[in-house]
Design brief:
With 318 residues, the chain is of the alpha+beta class. It contains 6 helices and 15 strands. The longest helix has 22 residues, at 104-125. It binds zinc ion. Zinc ion is lined by residues 73, 106-107, 140, 169.
């Protein structure tokens, strides 16, 4: 194969129907591209109860440092209604100077360019000093349990160490490579349930409408702002993403009401400090009486979503 051509690499990758968690031939193809360049290629299958087994790939060229790693994923999201595609999702058709296919942007395009870049370097200058590796998962678009984190642990347990890493996710506004990001905001989600007392809307004194309490709590989450932003990030932002009672009647006060939220936060917070701040706001709002005069504090509970994303910022300018 002409590995130095990113277009050919991308077309070959797109033709692998690697809808998560299926390998779809994509990792085998990478093996085929990287082995002839001198990479030592290893596959690693990760398992966990309740999730599908997922194949991952680690390939390294060189044994010395410094060690640069390219990280990415070959799995893609499902195609949805295939008939609605202007070009088939796995055909890699080119029209108007653009290639069409599932994963062209996120992120087979990035991997195709990684491979072409290292192949061109080898063609021109020979093997690089130090080492270059590919850490590629097949579990980014799915549960993301048997993917990058397990592959990192597996490689680190074998003694692998890296000095720098480039992730080929599509963050470029206009064309590939026009922006490099050095960090990412954290993400934390939760669901609040307010417990009230069901009753008839005509006799509210016999009931306790949980929506009143939920409005107080959600208001406290949305105002005031969590911070004003930092040198590297925009202000942290919380969005209430759903408010539910499941109540089909207009004249019944429901027994409980729930709301879910997601906050994208900057490096003035950690997951732990942010959880504490959210609880502080909720407890303060629960004791307020604006919407619930002469009532006991709002009874609520909160369930945090699993696996929050920690804020990340690299300060290593090298
Ligand atoms: Zn991606």
């Amino acid at each position: 194969m002409t590995t130095t051509d990113p277009v050919a690499n991308l077309a070959a990758l797109i033709r692998c129907p690697s809808v998560t968690p299926a390998e779809g031939g994509a990792l085998s193809l990478l093996d085929t591209l990287l082995s002839p360049l001198g990479f030592a290629v290893e596959k690693m299958v990760a398992s966990e109860a309740g999730t599908p087994d997922v194949e991952n790939l680690y390939a390294r060229l060189g044994t010395e440092g410094p060690h640069l790693m390219f990280a990415g994923h070959t799995d893609v999201v499902p195609v949805g209604d295939e008939a609605a595609w202007s070009h088939p999702p796995f055909a890699a058709e080119i029209a108007g100077g653009e290639m069409f296919g599932r994963g062209a942007v996120d992120m087979k395009g990035g991997i195709a360019c990684f491979v072409a870049a290292i192949a061109r370097h080898i063609e021109k200058h020979g093997k690089p000093e130090g080492s270059v590796s590919f850490l590629i998962t097949g579990d980014e678009e799915g549960p993301s349990i048997n993917g990058t984190s397990k592959l990192l642990e597996w490689a680190a347990a074998k003694g692998e160490q890296w000095d720098a890493c480039v992730v080929g996710e599509p963050t470029n506004p206009d064309q590939l490579g026009d922006m490099i990001k050095i960090g990412r905001r954290g993400s934390l989600s939760g669901r609040i349930t307010v417990h009230g007392v069901q009753g008839h809307a005509a006799y509210p004194h016999l009931a306790d409408n949980p929506i009143r309490g939920l409005l107080q709590l959600t208001h406290a989450l949305m105002h005031p702002p969590f911070d004003r932003g930092t040198d590297d990030f925009q202000p942290s932002n919380l969005e209430v993403t759903t408010v539910d009672t499941g109540n089909a009647a207009t004249n019944v006060i429901p027994a409980r009401a729930t709301a879910a939220f997601n906050i994208r936060f900057n490096d003035s917070w950690t997951v732990e400090s942010l959880r504490a701040e959210i609880i502080r706001r909720l407890d303060a709002a629960a004791a307020e009486g604006e919407l619930r005069p002469d009532r006991a504090p709002v009874k609520y509970d909160i369930v945090w979503a699993d696996r929050p994303a920690h804020v990340f910022l690299t300060r290593n300018n090298a």
